[in-house]
Structure formats: structure tokens, C-alpha cells
Write a structure and sequence with these properties.
The structure is a single chain. Helix content is 42%, strand content 12%. By secondary structure, it is α+β, with helices and mostly antiparallel strands. A two-stranded antiparallel sheet has the order 1-2. It is built from two helices and two strands. It has one domain. The radius of gyration is 23 Å and the shape is extended.
């Protein structure tokens, strides 16, 4: 049986907004200060944003990974490529 993990629910509700705009779930220790929870939540967003920028700039969003060839076909292709 799996023991449920204690989770924090962080909600961002900016002044003047009719309802909350962002939500985060965190599993940091109970002694974690609220400021640290907020910092970690925002850090995740910056990492995601930076990753998206890199994908766009390097063209990784168009990359298609291909499985490495193994077995007889790969040996045959490698052997034939030296001709």
C-alpha cells in the first residue's frame, strides 16, 4: 500500500483579479517557508520558459529521434558503408 504524500497547494491571486490565475502543487517538507515554496514554484516556470526558447532557437521542436539500429541489419549497413 502506498502512503499518500503530503502536498502543498499554492494559489496565486493577484490584486484586482476576479479569481486566482495560477495553481501549483508541491511536495516539499512541511517546515519549508512559504517564501521558498513560492520561489521554487516560479523557478519551475522559468525553467519551462527557457527550455521552450532553446527548443525554438535550436530547432529541437522539429527533431525526430530515431532508434539506433541493432542486430544483423545494422551490421550489414555498417559493413556495406565501407565499400
Amino acid at each position: 500500500m502506498r502512503v499518500p504524500t503530503l502536498e502543498w497547494l499554492l494559489i496565486e491571486w493577484p490584486e484586482g483579479e476576479p479569481e486566482p490565475t495560477k495553481y501549483w502543487l508541491a511536495t516539499l517538507p512541511a517546515k519549508t517557508p512559504v517564501e521558498e515554496l513560492i520561489r521554487m514554484a516560479k523557478l519551475r516556470w522559468r525553467i519551462e520558459r527557457d527550455y521552450q526558447v532553446l527548443k525554438d532557437q535550436l530547432g529541437l521542436d522539429h527533431f525526430e529521434g530515431r532508434p539506433r539500429q541493432q542486430g544483423k541489419e545494422a551490421k550489414a549497413l555498417r559493413g556495406g558503408s565501407s565499400l
